[in-house]
Fold these 2 entries.
Entry 1:
Amino acid sequence: QCGGRYPKPNPRTNYEDSGYPKSGNNWNPIPPEFYEGEDIFDIHGLFNEEDLNIINDEDDHYRNDPETRRNTNDYEHGYRVKIEVENGQITEQDNEVSVRKLETQLDEDSRDDYGSELQEPTSLYDFREDAEERIRPHYALDHRKAAKLALVEEMVYIKLKANSLFNSRDKISSFDDRCYKSLKQYLKEFEHDTKALNGTTGYIRATTVTANPLLTFRMIKRIVLGVTSSLMEICAQDGRNSEIIEAIKSSFSASNLTFPTRLDLNDALLGITRIQFAYGLNASDLCIGKIGDLHTNVTLNIDDSLELANYLMELKAYVLAYQWLTAAARSLNDVPKGDKKLATERVDSAWERLLTLIKLKQRNIVDQALRGKRQELIDEFSSYAGYATCRGEFDISDKEQAALFCFLNTKAHPYWTINPLKVELKKSNPPVWQFHDFLSDDTMAHIKKAAIPKFSRAGVIHDSKLRTEYTDERTSMSTWLSDYDSNNVRDPILFKLNKRMELLTGFAIIKPQSSHALQVVEYGSLGGHYEFHWDATEKPTEWSGTGDRIATLFMFLSDVLAGGYTAFPYLGIAVRPEKGSVILWFPLHLNGKPDFRTMHGGCPVIFGTKLAANKLILHNENFLKYKCSLNPNA
Ligand SMILES: O=C(O)CCC(=O)C(=O)O
Ligand SMILES: [Fe+2]
């Protein structure tokens, strides 16, 4: 891809490169990312000994918190999946669910750690209390947790489907039974997605759900509204339903998962909104599973559209809310006769709400009134201008293009003689470099293995106060990997990586205080992103004498099926995540002041997930290597 005209990144054409057909129904629903080899197993949680250990480790931070402490030793159900993949196709699949002992139950109080109260965000960038945000499972942000939820949901489904009470009542058709109705509705919703999932089950199903924002959204919504609210509340009122309640509770408790809450649903709604807004996608396309150029078989129903419309009205995003309302109205045609009256009432009331909010009297003038009003959301999504860069909407002049180059560097240091650096200059002033194939598969596997069990919600340190906040500006999981373990033993693989980065940049990285620990981040498919920002802190003295960040090395540990570019709006470049490559840029001018041109962000992931790591190099231990200049432009 290097050489010739600068390849203009366009997230919308990304799918073709990743092996997806542009359209049609016969695509294999398993993202290529999960094809072949180990990756297919890397997010499962419930299958074998080793994974159980990972889950246990991962839950350490829950366990250590007295508020959410629970018994993590009772993984008494087994879930075994055998899959053989050849040339990207599943040749054999064999699932087995066995529930051996399900003693632990969540008591009523711990059913929902976060309270069952509705917590609507008042703004997109709601500041959230640290403790709560750190321990929340983050089903919409953390695709690993979401995959576990998908597995548990399948187990719940299997048990509910087999429930004798349900079957016997099916015969007597007690239509006035609200529990029975909710149950039926829930099972129908689940089965609706089974079609889009080509009937896959178990692990394949779970990973397919979590790579697809629409399926993840639907799953979270279905469980929050269908299970947590409807089934658990309505069915519990009648003793005859204890088997149903039991089937649900035991599946969750045996897997040590808490029920997703309204907060998770709001995260999911925001994720869909972000993808839609950032990439300019239409509600009518999303409704039929069309995500940009990618056609998935998922379809959204009237409830999904109404949920989105109402949420968007909350955000004062009327143009988008209008799109979803129109989609909902169109979906009325698919609603079965018996439910039509109620559905029409719900659509009408959402329309009334929109008309009141935008102070109009008739539906038929809404389109005209809102036309051209892009202002909505722009105030909320401060990165509006930056999203154009995420979409690849920028130009590069011929002169600038001519200044770019790539080459194999064997001369930077004797170390690179045999295995040359693959260098690409992405921008000349200020310089942004990309080094291809910098990380070996072993190094990436090592980082991944060390980081995954430690992931918790990524925070942001705002320069006004040096404490971590959890906000929707940054929706990823993250952790820091130290070069030394708790016994002060050096990690040989990280050491070698640091050494290579020293040889690459010429800066000290290994010496204490010369760089931050390695930060590993993972963005999920529901629009996981990092809002535009500067890596320079502007508060160098407060960084305990380390000085500000003089260089950033940002490493891609995965490819991303669509979206997730690292975009620099002021520089007009967006770097496509390419597994094993690393980008290098310099957040400061040579006079020590932040170079605001280096503003950058992680564009929302559209499909798949993004694993990356960054190494921030600090000034004070490197000041002799950092040539000062009084020139504010240098
Ligand atoms: O995810 C990205 O592409 C950028 C992340 C970033 O800028 C950061 O972690 O500081
Ligand atoms: Fe950054």
Entry 2:
Amino acid sequence: MCTDPKPSRRRYSQPHHPATQRSRANSQLPPITSCRCVQKAWLASRAIPRRKGTYLMPGAQRPLNEANFKHAMTITRECALDLLKVLWGIHPYRTTLMFFLNILRGLSPAFRCYSQAMIVDELQSFITSDCFTWSRLVRLLVTEILRRAFDGFLDSFATTNERIVHDSARFFVEYQQVAQRLRLDIPTLADPHVRDCLQESDLFVRSFNGMGGFGLLSPFDFVQILALASELVSHIFVLLSLTGGTAHLGALLFSLFSAVLPMILDRYGLATSQADNSYSPQEAKTAERQEKLRSLAYSDVHRSEILVFGLGPWILSSWSAARRAMLTDERYSLTKSNLPDMLKEMNVSDLLFALQNIPLLLMFQSSSVSLGSLALYRSSVQSVVFTVGNLLTTIRMAFQGVFLMGAFCAAMNIQPRLDPPDEDALKYPTNSGGMKLEARHLSYTYPGSKDASLKDINFTLNAGESLAIVGYNGSGKSTLAKVLLRTIDFDTGELLVNGVDIRRLPPRDYHRRISTVFQGFSKFNSTVKENVGLGYVQKLSSHAAIERAIRLGGADSFVGSLPSGIKTKLDATGFDYPSCAGMNAMVPSGFSSASSNKIPHGLSGGEWQRIAVSRAFMRAERPEVDLLLFDEPTSSLDSHAQNKVFDTIDDVSRSSAGKRTKTVVFITHRLSTARRADKIAMMERGTITEFGSHEELLKRDGSYAALYRASV
Ligand SMILES: Nc1ncnc2c1ncn2[C@@H]1O[C@H](COP(=O)(O)OP(=O)(O)OP(=O)(O)O)[C@@H](O)[C@H]1O
């Protein structure tokens, strides 16, 4: 796996001992294992033999072979017990109770059979002999009723208890999973193994639904094995007490064999259902494509483009090609006739099951045998066969569950790649007057790309200076912005922030010092208030702060006229509803304005951009913010609005005395705006070819001067 956890490092703070379950669940997971062997075992279990570099799809069943058995053992040894201990710690009493109740539940079927056999015996003696007593029959019936009542009570109590344990455990693991997802940065998430690991970890989290929900087993479901084992032991005990001869023992072994036989066939690759294993990466791709095309056909978001570009027939034919390919594959695997299928056709298990009646005949020959004993014998044999089958299935599911658990443990140990190791981490070096940036020979190639998007970038931007990055499309401006924002790393070179290597600054701390507008900014399907307030969540409930940010971003001009002002819900997709205006017209006249206000309101491109700029201003004025980085913040705005935004950026970056207190970097294609900056970086083919003030670059009469002349 691509991550490089250092075993010596403590990754999670130890949970304190909170009194409530909620705070326990909110605490961080103590380190389960930092052993790389879990990651290695998990990854190795996914490798497809003889196809180097190819892996099973996330969630696919691991073949039951020796290598995987060893991997399962490693995972169990390294993380199962630790994880169970952590989960047990959430509800120690209830979890212990759950274990006992499951064993008790396992014993109850044998008691049931025994009790019913006694009633049958009593009835038999009523019909055939005179040693029958009513009082004994009534006693047996009352005992049976009480037993049933107790069974019912035990069952509902055990189920409720189990649900409480599972729910808390589920919340706990879900919480860890979400927290870990939020910790991970873009380069880490770009790794396909990390994504697969998180996906399998998600499946593990979902398994906490109780009793094999989603067909998966959570560690708590392992108690099922205990319950089944105790059920098996109790039935065997009943059988042994009923029979003694070797003929009966032989029949018993025969019964067990009949239950185990299908699993043996399976073990040697003669299984009848290999669906998951035969799901090759190519088939998975076809399935994914089919699903994507189906979603496209159903999508409202892309409806306009589908209509205007006439994509309907293409979607339909592509979908049907993918679907047909899948159906053909499925049909092919179904028609493949082999030995197990033939054995299945012959219903071997049923045949063996029929033979189990032989000892019944043997018993019948014995004159002393009672009807109840026969019934008890018959039901016990059937229960043994059924329980052995269940036990083997549960063990197989548990075997698969171990790998999902391994994925969870491995996922919890993934380190965000941009986080510096604890021993190297430095605090952000504060600097009055903004952030000083020094780039030395920076280069970067996107994963999977052949060409570098950044090549040998060099510049120095002093604290409080402003820099405009200009250049042709695809010249690397946004990539440089991402590097400066520390959302991606660089391959070679050095980037100093206030004299300190940016790689030694924890990104979370560094990001507190920045406010930004991304080129492809987010549009949240929420209210104006939240769309803006998310720029500084600490002030999300402050009306005044949000209104100020809206004013600074120039969004007040239209927000005031929205149906519910800043509480208006915005339609982020733009096309999710037939049309907001249309919808308003469709609302029956009797509807109150309140209900029509619930319909998300659409915005124009420029209006959305003002919302994004307002979001950046929500945080930009904070004293801890040293860098304002705006990637084409005004590309959709008219010239007047554009100037206003840049005037505001200038105001916000200065103290009340007019001194620059924040460094400003902005990317723009409008060179009339770029000339406002102290420095301009002209980018071409991934590198800065010219750097200096507007006047200096004009004097130089190079690419910038040519671009400037072309634009004015
Ligand atoms: N995620 C990515 N994966 C691979 N290559 C990428 C990725 N993003 C950008 N690139 C490539 O990197 C190069 C620089 O892209 P970048 O977005 O930085 O250009 P830009 O100067 O901001 O362009 P524009 O002016 O059009 O916004 C381009 O060749 C682009 O194709």
